[in-house]
Amino acid sequence: MQQESQGKRPSAQKRVAVKQKEKSDLATKKPKLDPTGEPGTSGVSSTRKTRKFKVVVKKGNPKSDELEQMANDIDPSDWKKVARKLKIHGPKITAIHKENEEFYEKIYQMLLKWKEANGSAATWKKLYKALIDADLKELAEKHCCKKTN
Q1: pTM, full prediction
Q2: Which of 36, 79, 122, 145 is the most buried (most CB within 10 A)?
């Protein structure tokens, strides 16, 4: 038994020595610098400018053709979540699901029914909020907003 524990001891010591060496190596490594001499960007120039746009929700009501375009971009796995955020409830969602075979058509019909049921209250602002609440920010900004400088 003593031999077994002695056999393990050198490997444990070796592991400790390796860890200490790794720590000292990390402490002596210098961070990569970008062309401007700033650490942390590893070769990406910080002189490149990015344009920022202010996002403004469109005014008014979406048209059917705009809803059609949006339907192409909503993922089939998200359409029921969007419907619930637009306050379309269970039985209507089930009916839309059963009446339409293709997901695109389910999504488009859901948006159309929302627009028809709400009339002038079916605004870009409400659609934007529903998409944001459904965690679809990119989609909301793409379809419900106009970009301004």
Answers
A1: 0.63
A2: 79
